[in-house]
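ingest -> validate -> predict -> emit
validate: passed (alphabet ok, no gaps, 274 aa)
predict: started
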Amino acid sequence: MSPAQLLGTPGDSGIHGSKGNVLNSKYAQLQTYAFHSQTNKHMACPSGMTEIMRGFSFLYFDSSSGTGHGVPLSNPGSCMKTFSIQPIMECTTDTCEVKGDDSSLWMPVGDIPDGSAASEYYPQEELVVGDEDSDQSDRIKEFLSRCTVCESPSTVMAIHSFTSQEPSCPEKWEELWVGFSLIMGRDRGGGSGVNLEGHGSCLRYFTPQLSARCVMSGSSGEPNCHFMSQDQITAYIKASDWESEEDRLGYFDPNLKRSISKCVVCRRLTNIAQ
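emit:
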């Protein structure tokens, strides 16, 4: 009898296997983000995120050649582990050097007390980094924002209303904070813009002063930082539902914050099956 003649009829179907596991997004979509406190204290990573490092909130490099580079505030590169008056060195084919007229822009604290103007709160004079007798590094750091780089299992984004009303997060997203819609901060011809989808475009604290300028030499002839530069400009999105006959609003004008677009920072819920 041939082997083919020994084959029987097909058997019954087997039992169905158990349902497979849902792919957890914390293993599939790890992201790294920088979160800026706008205070001189480091903020904790939002719940469910893991802290990677802490540092100082950095905005922009400006070189003596007229070129510069800004860092988006959502990007981990905007969180510098250490503070330096001049963190860049310019190199050519022959030499590398630190130039005295290079500058760096850092984010100052934004939690200005109610009733205080920026011009009253921030130091007016150039704060010097020098020898022990003249060094004011600690006072400079007192007015610099701190940041934390966090690893997130899901996406974080900003939503802007482009009105004076606070927007809400979409379904399956949770709110981290609400704030003011930022476009750009600049000083002395250079600055840093933001991606509106990034959470760095949504500031918790409204501040007219987004940048502190640090240089290797100034009117004092020594490395210093200046928090009240006359060249500083901070740009926000104007609320489309705000109308006024006045083109200029003072810092204490009750309509000022209503004239600026509001935003919300949202995080995708980590269970993608939700």
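The chain is about 5% helix and 30% strand.
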